[in-house]
Structure formats: C-alpha cells, structure tokens
C-alpha cells in the first residue's frame, strides 16, 4: 500500500492528502490508511487495522471513508483490496456523467478480471457526494444487490472507487479506469451539463 500510494500520487491521482487505500487481512478485518495522511509518502504508522464494521482495532483514526471500504469487503469475500483516488479525469467525468457511465468496445476493457474480449460493457454507477459516508455505503450496497458488484463506482465531484482480488489486480483496474475515464472525457458521449 505504501508503494501503491507513491505510484498513484506520482500520477497526480491523490492530491493534497486525498484518497484512501485498504487491503483485506482476513474474514473480519482489513488494513486501511489513517485519515489525513499524505498518500504519496505513507509511512508504516500511516496504515492501521479496522474490523469490517469500520471500528479501529489499534486506537488510530481510520480514513473518513472507511465504511466504503468495509462495505466492499462485507459484500464480497473475494475482494482483497480497494483503492479510492481523486484524479482529475475521474472528477471531471463524475460531474458530467449520467447516473451510469457505460464504456464498450475498447480493448483496455480486457484489463478487468473476467473479461476476455473488448466486446463487453463496463457500467460504472455514479453516486451523489455526501459527508454521510454511512448513508453512501448503504446506497452502494443497495445498488450492488440489485445490479451486481461490478468493478468500480464514481462519486460526483469527488472521485473513484475500484477493487479487486488483491492489490496488483486492483492497481490494474485503476490504471485501466483512468485510461477509460480520460477517453470518456474526450469522447463525452452523454454530456449535457455539469451536475454536482
Ligand atoms: C483532502 S481530501 C477530502 C477527504 C477525502 O475525500 C479523502 O479521500 C481522504 O480522506 P481520508 O480521511 O482517507 O484521508
Ligand atoms: Zn475521497
């Protein structure tokens, strides 16, 4: 997670202490970044343990968005890592997109686990931003129960969440998403107005 933070910060995807990262530790807990830390220069003490209710197990202050990470680990036991970033492309797309961003026919869609052809559609739901992270986590869970887990979601005017079986797979998903969101921004098939 420390190396991942340096790599993602270098790309400009984690400005100004934004973003948070986590990795599953077992069936009932995960490691998550401490709130407010510089994600480009994480130290071992900037990573802590929480249970899947989001409660700190070591007295530190977990990411303000911990419940969005633990929702994913509770939802799917196969999820082993979660990355949340604040890139310009994700933020731009999140403000102009309809409620679901759809991407089809692009070779890079094969970067997502389970895809062996470009002839697939990646659906990325867009949730409205809120400071009520528990409510947002509930909205995400409800959406996933109705539509499936998928690979990612956007939060309007905020950023991107993605996940995978482990950290390398999640980094691959994130890099593919960044490419695809930049493509979407330039193509902007559904743009009508900015929505924040
Ligand atoms: C300065 S960014 C605002 C908070 C945020 O969106 C974020 O991703 C970082 O929050 P954390 O508590 O995980 O540091
Ligand atoms: Zn954030």
From TrEMBL:
Catalyzed reaction equations: 5-(methylsulfanyl)-D-ribulose 1-phosphate = 5-methylsulfanyl-2,3-dioxopentyl phosphate + H2O
EC number: 4.2.1.109
Annotated metabolic or biological route of this protein: Amino-acid biosynthesis; L-methionine biosynthesis via salvage pathway; L-methionine from S-methyl-5-thio-alpha-D-ribose 1-phosphate: step 2/6
Domain Class II aldolase/adducin N-terminal: 1-185
MF-aspect GO terms: methylthioribulose 1-phosphate dehydratase activity; zinc ion binding
Cofactor descriptive note: Binds 1 zinc ion per subunit.
UniProt cross-references to InterPro entries, sorted A to Z: Aldolase_II/adducin_N (IPR001303), Aldolase_II/adducin_N_sf (IPR036409), MethylthioRu-1-P_deHdtase_MtnB (IPR017714)
GO CC annotation terms, alphabetical: cytoplasm
Record-level GO BP terms: L-methionine salvage from methylthioadenosine; monosaccharide metabolic process
Positions contributing to Zn(2+) binding: 84, 86
Alphabetical keyword list: Amino-acid biosynthesis, Lyase, Metal-binding, Methionine biosynthesis, Zinc
Cofactor: Zn(2+)
Function statement: Catalyzes the dehydration of methylthioribulose-1-phosphate (MTRu-1-P) into 2,3-diketo-5-methylthiopentyl-1-phosphate (DK-MTP-1-P).
Record family assignment: Belongs to the aldolase class II family. MtnB subfamily.
Cited HAMAP family: Salvage_MtnB
Protein's name in the database: Methylthioribulose-1-phosphate dehydratase
GN (gene name): mtnB
């Amino acid at each position: 997670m420390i190396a991942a933070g340096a790599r993602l910060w270098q790309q400009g995807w984690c400005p100004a202490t934004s973003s948070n990262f986590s990795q599953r530790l077992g069936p009932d807990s995960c490691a998550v970044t401490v709130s407010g830390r510089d994600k480009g220069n994480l130290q071992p003490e900037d990573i802590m343990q929480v249970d899947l209710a989001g409660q700190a197990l070591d007295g530190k202050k977990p990411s303000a968005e911990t419940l969005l990470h633990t929702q994913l680990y509770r939802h799917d036991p196969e999820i082993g890592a979660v990355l949340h970033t604040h890139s310009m492309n994700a933020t731009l797309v999140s403000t102009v997109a309809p409620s679901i961003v759809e991407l089809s026919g692009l070779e890079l869609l094969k970067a997502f686990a389970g895809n062996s052809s470009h002839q697939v559609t990646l659906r990325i739901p867009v949730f409205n931003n809120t400071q009520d992270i528990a409510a947002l986590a509930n909205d995400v869970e409800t959406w996933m129960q109705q539509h499936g887990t998928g690979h990612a979601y956007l939060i309007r005017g905020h950023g991107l969440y993605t996940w995978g079986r482990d950290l390398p797979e999640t980094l691959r998903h994130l890099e593919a998403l960044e490419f695809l969101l930049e493509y979407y921004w330039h193509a902007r098939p559904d743009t009508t107005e900015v929505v924040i």
